[in-house]
Specification:
Helix content: 25-40%
CATH architecture: 3-Layer(aba) Sandwich
Strand order of the largest sheet: 2-1-3-4
CATH class: Alpha Beta
Number of helices: 4
CATH superfamily: Glutaredoxin
CATH topology: Glutaredoxin
Largest sheet: 4 strands, mixed
Oligomer: single chain
Strand content: 15-25%
Length: 136
């Protein structure tokens, strides 16, 4: 199974998600999207696969969201993708793409349902223990 994570190593949620994937025995393709942003076509396909709007993928904290007035509802999805292409920090993370689905994994335990062999429990960096209640 090929798993791809669009990852920011400075983000705790992204690090936890990557650790959960690795704890399941999988080694994902890691795309540091701030260094290697996805193409517009790829970003649009990820948004479509997640079943969300471009607005749902926008990150506000620590980004130029406010200065670009991205809370203005007149911006179309296409416009918002343009902003994400110009400023990849606006892309929320981590996005995990698997044969079983694609998801924005906030919180990190959302990745568990995408894995063929999810871990039964996992301890996050902050000490929180996540117990998987789905199929194991």
């Amino acid at each position: 199974m090929t798993i791809t994570i669009y990852h920011n190593p400075a983000c705790g949620t992204s690090r936890n998600t990557l650790a959960i994937i690795r704890a399941s025995g999988e080694e994902p393709v890691v795309v540091e999207y701030l260094k290697n942003p996805p193409s517009r076509e790829k970003l649009e396909s990820l948004i479509e696969a997640m079943g969300i709007s471009a607005r749902d993928l926008l990150r506000q904290k620590g980004t130029p969201y406010e200065e670009l007035a991205l809370d203005d509802v007149s911006w179309s999805d296409s416009d918002l993708v343009d902003f994400m292409m110009a400023h990849p920090i606006l892309i929320n993370r981590p996005i995990v793409e698997t044969p079983g689905g694609t998801r924005l994994c906030r919180p990190s335990e959302l990745v568990l349902d995408l894995l063929d062999r999810p871990v039964a429990s996992f301890t996050k960096e902050d000490g929180e223990v996540v117990v998987y209640k789905g199929r194991v």
